[in-house]
Design brief:
With 138 residues, the chain is of the alpha+beta class. It contains 3 helices and 7 strands. It has a single domain, classed as Rifampin ADP-ribosyltransferase domain (ADP-ribosylation fold). The two termini are 16 Å apart.
C-alpha cells in the first residue's frame, strides 16, 4: 500500500471515455471500461499523465477519451495489475481504491500516443483476450 498522504500531495488522474463534471464521483460498481465489462470492484487512478492517457485511449465506448484530475475519497492501494512482477516499484504510479474518486478538474490538452503505439497495445490486449487473459484482475 502507498502512503495516502504522499499520494494526496500529487496530482492524480483517471482516464476514461465517460463525460463527467467537476464534483462527480467515479465509483466502483459500474461496468468496467476494460475486458468483458464486468462490474468493477475498484476504481483506478494514476499519478502519471501517461498512465491516464492509456486509460482514456483504451477505455470502452465511442466517445472521446477524457482525463480527469481526481481526489480519492478513501484509501488508495498500489494497483497489482501494473505492479508486483510486471513493474516492480510501481513506476507507472498506478493505484486503485474501493471508494470513489471525486472529479476536481479535467486535462483538456493531453497528447495521445502515436497511432502505431496505440495499435501495438490494442493488438497485445486482443492477443491476451484470445488466450482468456483479462487485462484487469479485480
Amino acid at each position: 500500500m502507498s502512503n495516502p498522504e504522499d499520494l494526496r500531495a500529487q496530482t492524480l488522474y483517471h482516464g476514461t471515455r465517460v463525460d463527467l463534471k467537476t464534483g462527480d464521483l467515479i465509483a466502483p460498481g459500474y461496468s468496467s471500461n476494460y475486458g468483458k465489462g464486468k462490474k468493477a470492484t475498484y476504481v483506478y487512478l494514476s499519478a502519471t499523465l501517461d498512465a491516464a492517457t492509456w486509460g482514456a485511449e483504451l477505455a470502452a465506448g465511442d466517445g472521446p477519451g477524457r482525463i480527469y484530475i481526481v481526489e480519492p475519497v478513501g484509501e488508495i492501494f498500489d494497483d497489482p495489475n501494473l505492479t508486483d512482477k510486471k513493474f516492480p516499484g510501481n513506476p507507472t504510479k498506478s493505484y486503485r481504491s474501493r471508494e470513489p474518486l471525486r472529479v476536481v478538474g479535467e486535462v483538456r490538452d493531453w497528447q495521445g500516443h502515436p497511432p502505431e503505439t496505440l495499435k501495438t497495445m490494442k493488438d497485445h490486449i486482443e492477443q491476451l483476450r484470445l488466450q482468456g487473459i483479462e487485462a484487469i484482475d479485480d
